[in-house]
Design a protein that fits this description.
There is one protein chain. This protein is α/β, with parallel strands linked by helices and 335 residues long. The chain folds into 2 domains: 2-167, NAD(P)-binding Rossmann-like Domain (Rossmann fold, 3-Layer(aba) Sandwich), CATH 3.40.50.720; 168-252 and 266-333, L-2-Hydroxyisocaproate Dehydrogenase, Chain A, domain 2. 45% of the residues lie in helices and 18% in strands. The protein has helices at 2-16, 34-42, 58-66, 83-87, 111-128, 141-154, 168-182, 218-229, 231-239, 247-264, 308-333, and strands spanning 22-27, 47-54, 73-78, 92-95, 133-136, 163-165, 193-195, 202-204, 270-277, 285-293, 296-300. The strands form 3 sheets. Strands 3-2-1-4-5-6 form a 6-stranded parallel sheet, with helices on both faces. It has a 3-stranded antiparallel sheet with strand order 9-10-11. α7 (168-182) runs antiparallel to α8. It is globular and about 55 Å long. It starts with a helix and ends with a helix. Bound molecules: nicotinamide-adenine-dinucleotide and (2S)-2-hydroxybutanedioic acid. The site of nicotinamide-adenine-dinucleotide has 32 residues, from α5. This is Malate dehydrogenase. Belongs to the LDH/MDH superfamily. MDH type 1 family. Residues 23-165 form the Lactate/malate dehydrogenase N-terminal domain. It holds the Pfam family Ldh_1_N. NAD(+) binds at residues 28-34, 54, 114, 137-139, 249.
Length: 335
Amino acid sequence: MFARALRRASNDAIARTRARGYKVAVLGAAGGIGQPCGLLMKMNPLVTELALYDIAGTPGVAADVSHVNTAAQTKGYAGDGELGAALKDADVVIIPAGVPRKPGMTRDDLFAINGGIVKGLVEAIADNCPNAMINMISNPVNSTVPIAAEVLKAKGKYDARKLFGVTTLDVVRAKTFYAEKAGLETAKVDVPVVGGHAGITILPLFSQATPKASNLSEADIDALTKRTQDGGTEVVAAKAGKGSATLSMAYAGALFADACLRAKNGEANIVECTYVESKITDAAFFASKVTLGRDGVDTIHGLGSLTAYEQANLDAMIPQLQGEIKKGIDFVKGA
Ligand code: NAD
Ligand code: LMR
């Protein structure tokens, strides 16, 4: 069903604009997210070239995915020596490379390992596809995006419009939980989620959800907010040591990459919540509604009117977000 929706949306885009094909690279393509995300990108009609990169295992994944009868020419790349070729002239780079959480860990506990992985990959992006839109999935997103920004700055290749932390899974979760609780049709629900991508920095704005549910109490909204904030932990606990969300993340990652591709292709009014360099709060990076254009971020939208509950949550998250952003910046600057 998702594939049909994705195909329909992309076909609409093609009909409205002069379509061209795009190269998408997935880094970490042999992993739990990377494999299904690669498959979903193979099914996207705007993709004509699909590069699947990992430190190992990608020849098999690519051989498998390449048999799907869609247009994207699919190739696997394995190991450092093939990273440059995988990235060469890519239009969109999706990064789910790195280790996932185990029960009891925070996303920040992944910083030491994933920070180094992301730094190396973004250096290669700067050298091989500096104009690509970067879709950062690797955790901790609150810090890996600032790491990427500093790496690109050091290489003289930073364009803030093209660097995105993927927070779409938070939106997907908020929509699902809200629709279930309010008894609404899930596919018709929209919920903006702002802030960052860890614990209290994830802030769903249920007061701005559509359609408006009249049957939810303040206690319901509090429970929905906490469930959205803890959605990742819920999956980590259920997987009991076998990693974190992969399938729902691949879906969310493919949705966000599709939005980037449609915007690149000239489709208008593409609005997504995403974590970008931002001036709308005191945090230098912040997720909010963003209109995407051919060159990436076109307009960063303000937060609109917040309830007292949402405002208090916003005020509470900013120091944590600022700390996690600083940690990412210091990681590169101090290196
Ligand atoms: P995984 O372990 O299944 O896969 C990660 C892949 O990355 C592996 O195949 C590994 O070989 C590869 N990898 C490691 N170092 C690499 C390098 N230098 N270059 C290329 N590939 C490399 O993990 P997963 O479940 O797919 O999760 C990946 C990351 O995504 C984790 O950091 C996780 O926390 C994060 N994540 C983010 C969100 C989000 O909402 N942004 C959601 C879920 C997971
Ligand atoms: C998620 O939200 O599912 C991801 O960030 C993975 C995690 O560690 O929770």
